[in-house]
Design goal:
The structure is a homodimer of 246-residue chains.
Chain A (H helix, E strand, L loop, with lengths): L1 E9 L18 H13 L6 E2 L8 E11 L5 H11 L4 E9 L11 E9 L13 E2 L6 H8 L4 E4 L14 E12 L2 E8 L6 H13 L7 H8 L14 E7 L1
Parallel strand pairs in A: 3-10, 5-6
Antiparallel strand pairs in A: 1-3, 1-4, 2-3, 5-9, 5-10, 7-8, 8-9
Chain lengths: 246, 246
């Protein structure tokens, strides 16, 4: 049996997220791709991703693998997928993987990017890909503060409230805030991501950039391990899973 | 009476173009903005744009003006518009204009950008903003050829077939082809644009880059003044009105 690995790009706007959600009206990205694979390969397929993404979150480089008996050439499979998938989901790569490769367990780190549109008026062209924030943000203070998150820490303060408490220690390998014109890009690479952690960190950084939280707050919040001290969760639409590293 | 000038950004995907089209199912961008202005200002508004854009064509910097008796502050008007307009249309600027300012007649030049996604697989995230072209394009040949269009010429060969023949002499002030990763951007600034001219030039450049038309073809096509010699019309979704210069 072959184990095939897909690199997937999607616009999450019209989906309930990667995974099937019971009672949710929108389709999941996983089910749409699985059904398309089943239609092409004429066998039951179980698609395993590097991790879930929430409703409205995008991906440039989600990775998912599945086992198949099919002998179809990879290029042909990719073309068939891109021909049959809806336009807001596409397959950037299809590769053979080792028999024991597992998209989630094998992932060494993942990189997310959060994009804020920081100007007085929204963008018609970027509406689904950015969080429009009209108030001035002090990017220098945000850049200075964010360094305290680098390295191995207990990120409990940034985990979604209501999460089942588990291991909340993670290592952030890279975190960077860049301004390009009216866009602020926050890049975070970590060995694992707690539920909503990026959106909670971004929501907190925005409060700092806006002056609602004073310099030094990020460290205090991190050390408090208390979700209530952090800022609000930034909206899903600004978030994109950029890359999964193996 | 005040004469107000708006700078408008829109995603043209879900519209029949700037202007109302009889019998077209989709709304026009003009009618949506006019109705929103009328709702805010409570008077009949006639919105005059720098020029029409076709169904599916986008704008970062369309300019339109209208006359009003309202004394509403510009900032308030802009906020009200951005609050009430659908998310795929927004107002980047609202300014006072001279009493005799006319968005179309006063325009000195306009700049359009056409974006081609040139790789083997489409993009879920950019699907509405680029033309996905999967075959290799020789960008160097395209860049070398395109210079012949610079300056004052009769562009009849690139005017949409079936156009009412009028004056077809225009001046292209700037034309540039850039490659950024998998994206090819073609920027054209001219004193005026014949109907479909950018999409016809791009369609022809693609044929050249693909090797279907030999080097030197662009000059021959230009001199032929015959639409039948040029390449096909590139799709609307890759086109964006970037700026109107006054």
């Amino acid at each position: 049996m072959r184990n095939l690995k897909l690199k997937i790009e999607y616009d999450g706007t019209n989906y309930c997220g990667w995974q099937v959600q019971k009672g949710h009206q929108l389709k999941s990205i996983q089910e749409v791709i699985q059904k398309t694979l089943q239609r092409i390969l004429q066998e039951k397929i179980k698609l395993i991703a590097s991790g879930r993404t929430d409703a409205g979150v995008h991906a440039e480089g989600q990775v998912a693998n599945f086992r198949t008996n099919s002998k179809m050439a990879l290029e042909k499979l990719q073309r068939a997928l891109n021909g049959l998938l809806p336009e807001d989901i596409c397959v950037a790569e299809a590769r053979e993987a080792a028999a024991d490769f597992h998209s989630r367990f094998a992932a060494k780190s993942k990189a997310y990017r959060y994009t804020i549109l920081n100007r007085k008026y929204p963008s018609a062209l970027l509406k689904n890909a950015v969080y429009f924030y009209p108030y001035p943000l002090d990017i220098k203070i945000m850049q200075r503060e964010v360094g305290v998150l680098l390295g191995r820490h207990n990120f409990k303060a940034f985990q979604a409230s209501g999460s089942i408490t588990g291991r909340t220690v993670r290592t952030i390998k890279r975190i960077r805030i860049l301004k390009e014109g009216d866009l602020i890009r926050i890049d975070i690479e970590a060995d694992g991501f707690l539920y909503s952690i990026v959106r909670n960190i971004v929501g907190t950084l925005i409060e700092i950039g806006r002056g609602k939280l004073s310099p030094g707050s990020l460290k205090k919040i991190l050390l408090s391990k208390d979700r209530k001290t952090a800022g609000p969760t930034a909206p899903a639409r600004g978030l994109c899973l950029v890359k999964v590293n193996y």
